[in-house]
Fold each of these.
Amino acid sequence: MCIGLPMQIKEKGFGYAICEGMGITREIDTLLVGDLPIDTWVLVFLKSAREVLTEENAGKIAAAVKAVDLIMEADAGMSTNGLDLDAIEALFADLVDREPPKPPSLIAFEQSQKKLKTVKTQ
């Protein structure tokens, strides 16, 4: 499985940058995102920057990756006894108690079904 890591550009050159994030430093390919200023956040997959991030989104992704790490560590021990579910939930604070938005295709389908029911009852 490949998980993107949020990293911040600290040094740069033509087509590459030295980035830090999630406690690691890596030289990454920046050809897909172009020349970016120092301190820009990027989402890195397999040593290649694929997307420019806001600092807020970088923080959310870092928290989600940390939560996955905690779950995988507990799973490796084959026990969830030491797993702090409140701590993991806190890492997904932006998703807790939030109703996910419906995709436009589902909204259109539901509207067409309502119209169909109206026609059948007339």
Amino acid sequence: MWRGLYTAAAGMITQDNRTSVIANNLANANTTGYKRDRAIDAEFHPMLIRRINDDMPIKVTDFKGFSLDRRPPVVGTLGLGSFTSEVATDHAPGNFMTTGNPLDLAISGEGFFVIDTPQGLRYTRNGNFYRATNGDLVTSNGQAVLSRQGRPINIPENAETIIVTAQGGIYADGAQIDDLGFVEFGPDRRAVLKQGDSLFYPQEGAQPQPATGSIEQGVLERSNSNVVNEMVELINNYRIYEANSRAVTTQDQMLDHSVNEVGRL
């Protein structure tokens, strides 16, 4: 019965972790370039169940020298609950939203923009960019968007038309002024990990390479988190949590009867 309490409690902790992940997805349903997370569950290694006295010299299956089976009887295994093994990021593309702003950029296919942060180079698909007072192209948090050469991109103050090509070339009034830093990390989606604020950082050893995707100007990539799907998953998660909670209550009642009634007899 004690083991049943731990197993049910492990399930409750797992579903609580999943609820936190779903809540974060819902909170970022309107965040540009956000990629939803998924809580991946795994099962603790099950325990082999053996009958009492199966290791005794005289088997409980033996009777007057006769045994049905000289081998220990196979009872089965006992599950020990689940745990959250990983919180994985779903890199599926989000829908595009047209804004008409020439500094709003979205990525179709694979790729990231390169951002300069106090923690070092970071990568994002949030192309909601602005022109700072000094002319530099920056994110909504004021962090510099870097060029292919790793330097800040300066937009001329008197530029009337800004054109960004599919591969990141930036033109002001018909003259090229710079190239956007536009990279990817190959087919391994786990090469980059979330930092927050729609930023990603590379795993140790992951090297950026030229992106194979294309850049769309005047549009933004919306979050790939779907509110309806997340709410359905949240309700299902609550029901599983509730079932585990009832299992804990049942185990507690059985322990109470064992101690206060069976023990008294």
Amino acid sequence: MATINTNSGAMVALQNLNKTNAQLEQVQSRINTGLAVASAKDNGGIFAIAQSMRADVAGYGAVRNSIDLAVSTTDVALAGGEAISDLLVEMKEKALAAADSSLDTASRTALNADFGALRDQIKTIISNAEFNGTNLIDGSTAGISALANADGSNTISVADEDLSLSGSIITIATNASFSTATQADNIVSQIGTSLDNLNSSLARLGTASKSLEVHKTFVGKLSDALEKGIGNLVDADLAKESAKLQALQVKQQLGIQALSIANSAPSSILGYFR
């Protein structure tokens, strides 16, 4: 039947052309963004999974920052403890020299002055071994904790080590000094005990710092694996999309031609009235 009111051929051609245009728009979006699933309307289920994994990746970023902070704080404490250990060795040398009963009073007094300067330097080191407001060796904190997982439910703790004078680790008095060989000999014994205690403290801090670094490495690998998983879910295959793009562009041109032919069909009716 020949009619000018209804052109079914043009309708079909237009429907196919619109479908091609929609597919072409989708392929162009994938090429522009690099994503096969850029929003929930592309694939709601995959998008939800990817977003959940992205949240975990972001959480592990916070975990790495927390661990970095804890490592830095612990390393500053370690540096302070090692410096104190060196000072104690020097102090023991001074006290041991003063314990010589044949030493004259002037020499022992000079050694005591050196000893006192070294003792006071320990106080200075302790008060300055601080990072981001936290000091693990002055007894001002009970320790620190770093995040261990993406939801914050697990932490890694580092205990403090109070290295203050007259404490349980460094037993030397804050005003320790000597004027006789006997006093100097007693201080030598105290320093020996303090060094043993300090070495144990340094070992604990070193182990804690190493544990934090090991966990940071693991978190980095886990985060990388999650990012790879997200890519597998949502990334577009650009080689495939490029091939689709060329095919759809040809299909679009053919659709336009088909629509043009269908639209010109009613004009043939004029031939019936000549």
Amino acid sequence: MANYTLEEKDSFIVIGLGTELKSDYTDYAGINKEKSDFWQAVSEDGRLDKLKAMAVNDYIFAVSEAVNNKMMYYAGVMSEAAAPEEARVIQFPKGKYLVVRGEAATADELNNKLAGVAFGQALPEAKDVAYVGGPNTSVEMGQQDGQVVGEMWIPVVSK
């Protein structure tokens, strides 16, 4: 049984740098490699640091969203600032969210672990709510005891 909560959240905005994921949605190894390569690129070229300077908190967001029938993936921060030209404004709605908490040795491991638990266990077990699309995100919230800690936030509606 997955450990999750249902929480009300105010609407919020993530400013994100994006990439299209080309792997088939069932090719988890391919998708995870694309995500990992993308994070490495935006970290090394300084684009993520520029976003962090605009952030309202220290959280780092990994956002997944279907846009125009494409699987898009974003590295972002919560911000009220104007988005840089290469970034996208991602609006998360006010409402109910399924939240899964976790920790892992690295941010990559955390994102993969949270998504697996959230979509593989928690959503199927949450009988009173449904995910009807829209952006979802794993949120890197810091470090504790040498582990990266964070949460997965999935907007849901009551069934």
